[in-house]
Amino acid sequence: MSAEATTIEARVSTDRALMVDRIRHLAETLGIIAIAGALVLAFGLTSSHFLDSANVRNIFVQISVVGVAAIGETLVMLAGGLDLSVGSVVLLSEVICADLTATHHLPLSVALIAALAAAGGIGALNGVLVAVVGIEPILATLGTLLVAAGLAKLILGLRYLQVDHPIFTDLAVTNVLFNLPIMVAVMLGLYLVVAFTMRATPFGRAVYAIGGNRRAARLSGLSLVGITMGVYVIAGVLAGVAGFLNVAQIGLVSQNDGMGMEFQAIIAALVGGLSVTSGGVGRVERTLLGALMVGMMTNYQTIKGIDPPFQQAFLGGLLLAAVVADRALRGRQ
Amino acid sequence: MTSVRSRLLAKSYIDTWFLLIMTGALLVAFRIVQPSWLNGQTVQNLVIQNTPLALVAMAMTFAIISRHIDLSPGSMVALSGGVIGLVYTSQGSLPLAIVAGLGTALGAGLLNGFLVAGLGLNAVMVTLAAYIWARGLAVGANAGNPIDVGSGLGNVVNASWGGFTLTAPVVVVAYLLGWLLLARTKMGRYTYAMGGDPIAARRAGIDTALYTTAIFLLMGTMIGVSAIITVGQLGSAQATAGLGLELDAIIAVVIGGTRLSGGEGNVGRTALGVVFLSILNGGLLNLGLTDSYFQLYRGLALLAVLSVQIVVRRATDEEERRKREQEQLSAALAAE
């Protein structure tokens, strides 16, 4: 009888712990929404153009490329890794897609598949280097950053490739959601799918598990290699998709596309309140809020006529503020 | 006792031997591809071009051993250089400008140190933020244009004796001091202790906040000196100075056999890592490759070296383990 009582007690206490955990996550998400809301209010009150529907559309279009790349980056970071190759993969995907359609006149579907395969391939290479060989993620992905950028520039040379396929124009121009174009809908859709995957599937739970405690995850029978590979491949493919959106937005492919995007993606994830010290903590949908906050900051400063380099300096300050706030809220680990 | 000692030595030398062999292979490869490249002039050029890398990598060794990391050096070299340029332009005094540049680097090191050691924030995040804000300020300082500092500083930095400029002795002295600091002082021992187990180090009474800040200040000093040398060599402060310097420095430290998980490593092996990376970069640049091939080869070479290093390490670890198990077994049998 006492054993039964203990089980019930244990079950009640785990239920309570789960509840507390869920409430804490909800409170954190609400807190980040509140900060984003405060930013909207402050920017809206001090600038007459900020809340114009055309400007809101602009902000969403501007963040959609980084937003998609940041989904993959968030997954990698949740699993306790880091991916510096994101920006190069964006470039590689753009170049392959543009080169196959513009230079070799292949159908767009073939070009898209080839670009995604290359992007996923770089992701798989990251996965092998990190999970199988055992190189530190920051160094392995720095190596693949160089390899992917080198390959992309090798194909591109000194050209600018113009891409004027109607599908790309549609992505950036045709409105589907209020006055938001398809590319924004694509980004929001991807967030929905990945957020659901992370919550409701064994894969999502496994990513949190290996990010939280690698040893415990291995001992409980999870395949570290498989999950790490999966996370890096997803990050690669999503960076490839981000490349398509970038082509749609600019209509042109040039050498410096995607440069530094890995850092923008990391910043979006961090401002959204991902805990990187430990891995295994954080929510994909919060990265969207992070990307949105960064996008609003950049947009507001542009409206106010602040030079891009100083905007970058503010962005660094914002990242620091996010890290300090995270520490203040969560306490010392 | 002696057997344990010799085994430890043998194990720690594996990385060094491996690196020396790789460096030799690299030299042979470049020698075959471009026989004229390797001569006395090359060595001098490599030293002159890679002084900032060497200095920053020395301080990075401390940061990595203590289980921290610093991603800000590249941006900070540009920012400190920009301050030198701005102060020189407005005040016209070179010594004042140099002091201001050094002060900027040290101040940034102090800030990073305070945030990491005082507030207990993650060094990756803090220095990533610094990487971003410092580059923003450096580019914004003069709208991205170089700031001329006249020829006074250049005359000192570029003066050469027997082909070597002032930078060669600076690097040698920095590595000697770094070696002394790490191997012979309390700060060095505490650096290993903090990296080996930060909590145990704190419980053992080490003032981890103080020594962590000291490590970031050491980095600040090296950044300041690098900024002065860079500005002097070019005769102007460039907004793009030090681009990618931090990652190169980290690679040099890791190729030198120091692990990012902290607690081990030394300055001498970092020096070897710097030599390897300098030869790789210099040799590839000399081939007159386009940017694309340069990046591709560099990326492949780094991944190859890091992979082989780990495979070699794993093999020796495995051998160690087997030997230890056998010893335990024979000891147990003897006891019976």
Task: Give the strand tally of chain A.
Answer: 4
| Structural class label of chain A | mainly alpha
Query: What is the terminal-to-terminal distance of chain B?
Result: 23 Å
- Strand arrangement in the largest pleated sheet of chain B: 1-4
Largest sheet properties of chain B: 2 strands, antiparallel
User: Biggest sheet of chain A, open or closed, and with what strands and sense?
Assistant: 2 strands, antiparallel
Q: State the helical fraction of chain B.
A: over 70%
**Would you count the extended β strands of chain B for me?**
4
Structural class, from secondary structure content of chain B? mainly alpha
Strand content of chain B: under 5%
Helix-strand sequence of chain B: HHHHHHEHEEHHHHEHHH
Q: Which series of helices and strands of chain A comes N to C?
A: HHHHHEHEEHHHHEHHH
How many helical elements of chain B?
Answer: 14
**CATH class bucket of chain A:** Mainly Alpha
What general form of chain A does the structure show?
globular
* CATH architecture descriptor of chain A: Orthogonal Bundle
Strand portion of chain A: under 5%
Evaluate the radius of gyration of chain B. 22 Å
Radius of gyration of chain A: 21 Å
